[in-house]
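Handout for the seminar on molecular recognition.
Each group receives one record of this type.
Step one: identify the two inputs.
Step two: read the structure output and locate the region that could contact 4'-deoxy-4'-aminopyridoxal-5'-phosphate.
Step three: write two sentences on what you found, then compare them with the reference statements printed after the record.
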Amino acid sequence: MNKIIYLDAAASYQKDETVIEAEVDFLRNHYANSGRGICSRAAWVDDMLNFMRRRVASFMNTNAENIIFTHGTTDSINQIVRMLNLTDESVVAVSDLDHHSTRLPFVMSGAGIVVCPLDNNYDIDFNKIPYADVVVITAMSNVLGAVQNVAEIIRCAREKNPNVIAVVDAAQFVVHEKIDVAEWGADFVCWSAHKIGADTGLGIMYMKNPSRFAPVQFGGGMVNKIVADEIIFNNVPDVFEAGTLPLTQIAGLGAAIDKLEENRPNLDLLKYMYDELKEMSRVRILTARDAALLSFVIDGMHVLDFGAMVGVRGVCVRVGNMCASWIHKLMGIDASIRISVGSYNTKEQVQQVIKYIKDIVK
Ligand code: PMP
């Protein structure tokens, strides 16, 4: 990774060589479309797709029929909103931990929005979950990096409405913790492959009851046959996957999951940085010491200036509102600086970055 120190895994994770090799092998030696041919290459691709679907299913403790490939968390949430056929009488409970991708599709649907309160630690206060038809749960905020008690939140939401649909955004959670959809009892769980070191343009959407919902995208691959005026759709999960899938990205997914399971990001690096930054009087840390991310602001310094100053030294961090305006507003700030690590980051790198920060902030 040349001289760059990349501390922005939470935006997109660097790719392990095994992921790159799997994609190159597919492109070079096996490339074909899926579900569309009987030649040996097409069969190879179908086998690969089935294997990857099963691999993702075991990764999330579910079955292959419950896994839908999409184009990312944003795409999944937009599809879910359309599947739910919300009206202006529907009530959707959200929280201020939400990413714009997770809340905005619901807001734009015209449904009524209620906000689940956060407690003093900025965690979702499951004792105060309001009545809702849909509860949207960000399992880990991309600003605060704290694990939410998804199972308990869903249990409390179901106490208020046994038929509530629980939608979980696991885009950050998936990097650090095992997803167990059975334990959560969620109706939908979404994450993006690029957050775990697979490629962009691929999302994973778990559906607890796929046969209860109708697809919202139409085209090739999801139709079995059309006879006169009758359209016979494919079975789940294919019926939810209209058009050609991002096959190259799927080819790299298994290697990324293997790598993640064998080696999750080392959060001790963030604890080390936390302890160093805590000593600096101008730095206000927003995250807990044991969080999966390290976010902070610096008194008297704009986050863009900070980003540019570490940037010229070859350090990549994320600065801005992180597409999470609501949590920033709640904390009384417009933007923050976020440091996140992947399993490829080292102690030497974070020590170097601490030196730069001390130099810049004084
Ligand atoms: N939710 C969270 C918590 C995220 O961190 C992100 C990515 N920043 C998203 C949703 C959206 O993911 P994508 O852009 O891959 O669709």
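Reference statements: The first strand starts at residue 5 and ends at 6. The chain has a mean pLDDT of 97.
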